[in-house]
Input
Amino acid sequence: MEKKIMRIGVLGTLRGGSYIDIFKKLDGAVVTCVCENNPRSLKNVEHLLDDSIKVFEDFDEFIDSGLMDAVMLCNYFTEHVPFAVKAMERGIHVLSECTPALTMAECVLLCRTVEKTGCKYMLAENYPYFACNMEMKRIYDSGRMGKALWCEGEYNHPVTPHDKNMLAPGRLHWRNWLPRSYYLTHALAPVLYITGQNLKAVNCKAVFAPDTLKGTAAMVGDLAAMMICELEDGTLARVTGCAAWGGHGNWYRICSEKGQMENVRGSLDQIRVQYNSWHIPEGEEEVSIRPAHWHEDEEMNSLANNAGHGGGDFWVAYYFAKYVNEGVEPPFDVYRSVAMSATAILALRSSMNGGAEYQIPDFRKEEERKLWENDHDSPFPDASGNVTMPCCSKPDYTPTEEDFANAEREWKEAGFVSHETFLI
Ligand SMILES: NC(=O)c1ccc[n+]([C@@H]2O[C@H](COP(=O)([O-])OP(=O)(O)OC[C@H]3O[C@@H](n4cnc5c(N)ncnc54)[C@H](O)[C@@H]3O)[C@@H](O)[C@H]2O)c1
Output
């Protein structure tokens, strides 16, 4: 049988740069085109481009070029769904950066579009594929730990005010409006991946501490979203969303019937496994700290070793090519992906309502989708700066004029120009 090679195009060349590099090296994929409308971002990938890769500025021309079987969406966080829908309506498979959808209505639309078009949709969530998480999944799947009872997932990403401003150039840039719960996949997806579970309900309280963000245009004064997610089998997961404090790093812990396992703090390739003294499997120790591996195949491991985000980026590309070329179902299909978006959205509402519980719809069921199909509330501004709901757990919070002035000075000093800065 002839080997299938997926032709892929990449939209957005900041984050997209990593994937152009990986897909170029991946057996089973060829990068045929990229789309970027900001010359400054395009410069980031100049060294990766050659005559075989066509560059577009305009998305419509790019998506109608006939050059791709699949597209990777590395565009703005707030605009993944409209672009995913346009691609699938043309029969083009979609790999989308995090998170999949901004509103409950978009979650519904994305599922319906996948069903209507028959296209393949996968979320490019990369943190489940750290070596520690892949190793913990193998142990979990072996049954030696028993069923999970509760889990923890932390993604802490503190940045200086200057770095925050460089990542979020312009008052309307999505990173200035990003509620802490909305960037939850890096904390939550590894827990779902390891346990194989789906989401059922969420409660959330936010840590409000705006002083640490002084000097930025962040409209969100929350530092972290403490979410308690109930999984379908009753397991509880405590996850942080993207916490802006707490020591940079990731930490995942699975507490189960027979013991617990976690990555060693500060390490993505070492895990600590601990069994109850009365549940130690034959040949195991009660407590061990051991190296974690991505895969048994060393050739695959060396490819992952050269990829970003603890090797996770490589596995995203690998699973997507397998999905498109061979039909192998990926860990995060459209239903599991939008359930994470719904958790993020409803968690923000919970944090504004005293931590009240919200049920996560089952997006496979049309009767549940109907209830949410018209819920368009979004905490992100449109091009004129209008929003339909607050982005912070304290709805009246905004940075001071001094904070805005500092951010604007830094954007100008860094040379951001008007089309990069979204109405500075
Ligand atoms: N999974 C991860 O580890 C990870 C890491 C970083 C970013 N991301 C995600 O990647 C996405 C992009 O983030 P980013 O860091 O690249 O910053 P960004 O959102 O500021 O940049 C987006 C880029 O896409 C381009 N773009 C947007 N719309 C376009 C259009 N219609 N036509 C042509 N070009 C367009 C912009 O010019 C810009 O260069 C976000 O969703 C973010 O959440 C994921």
Residues 334-351 form the longest helix (18 residues). The mean pLDDT is 94. The chain has two domains: 6-123, 127-308+334-370.
